[in-house]
């Protein structure tokens, strides 16, 4: 059985970004690069298995039923659904090899039109994860379900947390597709209204869940090479998003060049236009305080806005954040690896990041040093200078 059996087996924000790319930048050429941040992992040993799964991935097409489901999403435009009917992932855009410099290291690059490569990231990460765990551990669904039920009880049975709601954001680092499929309906049954859906479009369709997602870092990163000026790239990206979705999908990602730079760009217009903001790096309590103060300073009622937390969450952290911000704003939580890869073996920390667009380097300067991925030190220094970001941020 192939690891990926449907092109919908990915995160919703890949489709929302892809639609914007189709309409606004269909000719943009990008490059993504893979990195394993977990030391001592010999992925190259399984390169043949990974290679075969990529070949299988590139044979997939959207079925008529899948296209009908996509058309039924309120923000999907007819021409995008029609485009997906013609779409497939093309193997020619992927370069996969074992490193000749670092034993065991896997070198994987994706280079090609943004429109035709944007859907590679999530399934490739899911493939690498599943191949690794398939070869190095025995799946223990009983242990995984025991842990899952214990997590659900921590949230469900805690007085005062009845309105605390979580969604699954764990596709890219899951133990396996089979476990992901197994755990979602069980989590829904255990949490009831406290479980609001999943980022995974295929499993949302299969289990009657709500798919969640808006934009990822790559969307704003690309505008570093697409916008008229680097300094204006974040503003241009947010304006382009608003032009595409006209107020729908209104959660802005705040850490592509750091919170300080984001707040300088996220003016009264954006404060009123967007429904809220998403946290993905740095201290979440400090970040949330700053966001709510920023809304208030712009004469926007913070209680009308949503703070979405999605950075390395577990149930305990969700509860602490909920208790801290409850009543001050609307809240949403996306929990990933803690749900989809907690069966005993240690999860991998692997990523695929956009590193170039139209031949120019792009990067993110997040609020957590070490999250950036760029091979051009000169560009990183220039990016920091342009956005007035400290030299130790995103290093």
UniProtKB/TrEMBL annotation:
One of its GO terms (molecular function) is glycosyltransferase activity. It is an enzyme of class 6 (ligase). Residues 8-129 form the Nicotinate phosphoribosyltransferase N-terminal domain. Transiently phosphorylated on a His residue during the reaction cycle. Phosphorylation strongly increases the affinity for substrates and increases the rate of nicotinate D-ribonucleotide production. Dephosphorylation regenerates the low-affinity form of the enzyme, leading to product release. Transmembrane segments: none annotated. Its EC number is 6.3.4.21. Residues 164-389 form the Nicotinate/nicotinamide phosphoribosyltransferase domain. It holds the Pfam family NAPRTase. It catalyses: 5-phospho-alpha-D-ribose 1-diphosphate + nicotinate + ATP + H2O = nicotinate beta-D-ribonucleotide + ADP + phosphate + diphosphate. GO terms for cellular component: cytosol. The modification Phosphohistidine is found at residue 217. Pathway: Cofactor biosynthesis; NAD(+) biosynthesis; nicotinate D-ribonucleotide from nicotinate: step 1/1. It comes from the Bacteria. Keywords: Glycosyltransferase, Ligase, Phosphoprotein, Pyridine nucleotide biosynthesis, Transferase. Gene3D superfamilies: nicotinate phosphoribosyltransferase (3.20.140.10). Catalyzes the synthesis of beta-nicotinate D-ribonucleotide from nicotinate and 5-phospho-D-ribose 1-phosphate at the expense of ATP. This is Nicotinate phosphoribosyltransferase. The gene is pncB.
